[in-house]
Description:
Layout: H1 2-6, H2 17-81, H3 84-87, H4 91-104, E1 111-113, E2 119-122, H5 154-166
Antiparallel strand pairs: 1-2
Amino acid sequence: MRLHCFFKRKGPQPISVRxxxxxxxxxxxxxxxxxxALMFWRDVQLRRDAVExxxxxTARALSLAVDREIGNILAVAQTLAASPHISAQDFKAFYELxxxxxxNSKIAAIAxxxxxxxxxxxxxxxxxxxxxxxxxxxxKVWRADGIGCRRATRQLRQFWKRVSRFFPICSWxxxxx
Length: 177
């Protein structure tokens, strides 16, 4: 008989007032919270996209500004490289021309090096001032004639290849004097 009581069908249980109140409160809150979460996520996405777009535009503008400056420097370097004062080894006239070009084009300094690495002119110093040789005491020998580096480190060769494409370097075989 006990088993029979256990399987006895019970009628539908009435829903309590508390359950009705909970359902009435949650029914409008669930869609509202879902919609709020969706809008928050979309706002974060839009802000991230705006920041990325702004950074991309800033990078593009900086790239164009750097390209323009490199173009200006390259034009000055090519003009100075074609100067007849270099082949005539008239370094005082070349210094005056370089100093004027550096001043007019807002380039900080222009320096001219010999094949041995000796600095011949530097527009930050007066002409005739004794200038240092940055390679003095170095066992590495390099040439600045556009051909490349000789017996230099691999990093210096890679650097020279990259730089020499954009900046022609003037040099000659004889020493100044």
